[in-house]
Design a protein that fits this description.
It is a single chain. By secondary structure, this protein is an alpha/beta fold. Helices cover 49% and strands 15% of the residues. It has helices at 25-36, 50-57, 86-98, 136-149, 152-163, 165-171, 175-187, 192-197, 201-227; strands spanning 17-21, 40-45, 61-65, 78-81, 102-105, 118-122, 125-129. It has a five-stranded parallel sheet, sandwiched between helices. A two-stranded antiparallel sheet has the order 6-7. β6 (118-122) and β7 (125-129) form a beta hairpin. It is elongated.
């Protein structure tokens, strides 16, 4: 089997129209992932399970109970085919390829130009796990294990670090200065993740303030040296 040489990217789907062809259990999983990404989801299928109908009833997606048509791709950013009909899935793939669109055909890797990884979400964190379609079951197992490995303290730390990005941009003049500051915080001692695991959020806040002072003074010293002040 060839190596996984997929280009991994996080795509902002907010407000983008995405089509799912099919409305069974597999399609539902894809629909829920798209909704979690704030996509505008349209679904086309001959039949729909109750969960998909319920989502349509509350207005979070548009459901059309009919056959798929090529024109359904008009205005869409990406399409997922998740029907049990090989002919339909193949047509969706062909239509999308003609339009240079992103297309994923569930459980048929050679008809996909992008893969849907197993994703662990917690606050600002999203950990994606892909086997390049080799084994979705293995990816799901790894997802379960990742929940334990990267739990709530990581998400909490990410939120705290995000909150100080404006300060870093204003106080630390170069990308390298900012990179050194955040890497010192994340990888230094004491370990902020360990502190958060122990419920010591105040200690992490104090650590952040100490590192801010340290790196600001360092940046100021370097600036003074470069200007001869």
């Amino acid at each position: 089997m060839k190596a996984n040489n997929l280009y991994v990217a996080c795509i902002d789907l907010s407000g983008k129209r995405c089509l799912v062809v099919g409305a069974g259990p597999v399609a539902l999983e894809k629909i829920e992932g798209l909704l979690a990404a704030d996509a505008e989801v349209s679904v086309v299928a001959l039949e729909a399970i109750d969960e998909v109908r319920n989502l349509a009833d509350v207005g979070v997606l548009e459901l059309s109970l009919r056959e798929y048509r090529s024109g359904d791709l008009d205005g869409c950013f990406l399409v997922v085919a998740a029907t049990e009909n090989t002919i339909v899935n193949t047509k969706v793939h062909a239509d999308a390829e003609e339009r240079s669109m992103l297309v994923n055909v569930a459980d048929v890797p050679h008809l996909c130009n992008f893969m849907l990884p197993a994703i662990v979400r917690d606050g600002p964190l999203a950990v994606a796990i892909s086997t390049a379609g080799a084994s979705p079951a293995l990816a799901k197992r790894m997802k379960r294990e990742a929940v334990d490995l990267f739990g709530a303290p990581y998400a909490e730390l990410a939120e705290m670090l995000e909150s100080i990005r404006p300060w870093a941009k204003a106080a630390l003049p170069t990308y390298q200065d900012r990179k050194a500051f955040f890497e010192d915080l994340v990888n230094g001692a004491p370990d902020p993740v360990v502190l958060l695991e122990a419920g010591l959020r105040d200690a992490v806040s104090e650590l952040i303030e100490a590192k801010k002072e340290e790196h600001w003074r360092r940046a100021e010293a370097l600036r003074s040296q470069s200007t001869g002040a």
